[in-house]
Design brief:
heterodimer; A: 123 residues; mainly beta; seven-stranded mixed β-sheet; B: 107 residues; 10 strands; 0% helix
Amino acid sequence: EVQLVESGGGPVNPGGSLRLSCAASGFTFRAYSMNWVRQAPGKGLEWVSSISTSSTYAYYANSVKGRFTISRDNAKNSLDLQMNSLRDEDTAVYYCARPTYEYDSTPDAFDLWGQGTMVTVSS
Amino acid sequence: DIQMTQSPSTLSASVGDSVTITCRASQSISNWLAWYQQKPGKAPKLLIYRTSSLQSGVPSRFSGSGGGTEFTLTINSLQPDDLATYYCQEYNTYSYTFGGGTKVQIK
């Protein structure tokens, strides 16, 4: 089955760190750039970060630049998001998302999403 | 960064109605626009990509149009299953800005 499964969410204190993971299955993971998108409770969608197929390029939203790091392990079909210096406003459901086309080096719509993992930043 | 302004924020319509949601970009994004449907507690689902291309498996009552800075999503013959929030998203650049969302309610 083609799917993405996120894990690693949970409660964390402001200033703390958390590492999210996304396990991919059912498709050629190494052929796709990958993305993280988040959604604060009751709010809209916000793109967080993207990484190219071979990890050569990584892109970040201004709101997380310098605090979050995206990475991937193509041998393990996994995508990670290391989140440091967490703030209250980082509280959200975090989704990993796959673009529509393989080997596409340009931005693309997201046709496959995981179920999301909740991160709660609170003291 | 590109700003995406979506309207209305909420709409209420009856089953069988045709509804239109508008998304405006702060600068031209060519045709790099997608529409997503999100039901409560679920992940977003891709409906339309590249302004007007229907994603596989999506009912043909959904259609998209536009270009440059102004785009629309039309749902023809609204169905009870279409109760959801709809988001536009630009992918002209690696800012991937989403619109604020339109909540569609069934009268």
